[in-house]
User: What shape does this take?
Amino acid sequence: MLTALEAHPLFKAARTVLLFHSLPDEVFTHRFVEKWCSRKRVLLPVVVGDELELRLFTSPQQLQPGAYGIAEPVGEPFTRYEEIDFVAVPGVAFDAAGNRLGRGKGYYDRLLPHLPQAYKAGVCLPYQLVESVPTEEQDVRMDCVITSR
Assistant: This one.
């Protein structure tokens, strides 16, 4: 399914992408992040309190364990949100309408409204694509959902 992500025309055209370093129950993205960091400006989220801070990823050597055991890049925060073209978003579940169920902390729901120009692609395993995801007012809908189904 990451093949479908990298084949997406808007991913291909993107210069700055926000990806994620996966947890064990998510689509494995570690090699994908490494592959693209030499071709695009790749950002990864870092949990800082109740917010996601974005940082540039340049190599696996710059990663350190962060919140929830996720490897996070060290370095200065990236704050030029308007330069982000494409966002790959993890989740617990997605539906065909682009609704996303996160892990309940609201990190992406607080971040994504700051990225109105960025194309948002939910990335999930086949079993995470469900009939319907309950939504609330603050939930941000994905522009597409990519899975191997």
In short: The beta strands are 16-18, 41-48, 51-57, 63-65, 71-73, 86-89, 93-94, 100-101, 119-123, 144-146. Helices lie at 2-7, 9-13, 30-36, 107-111.
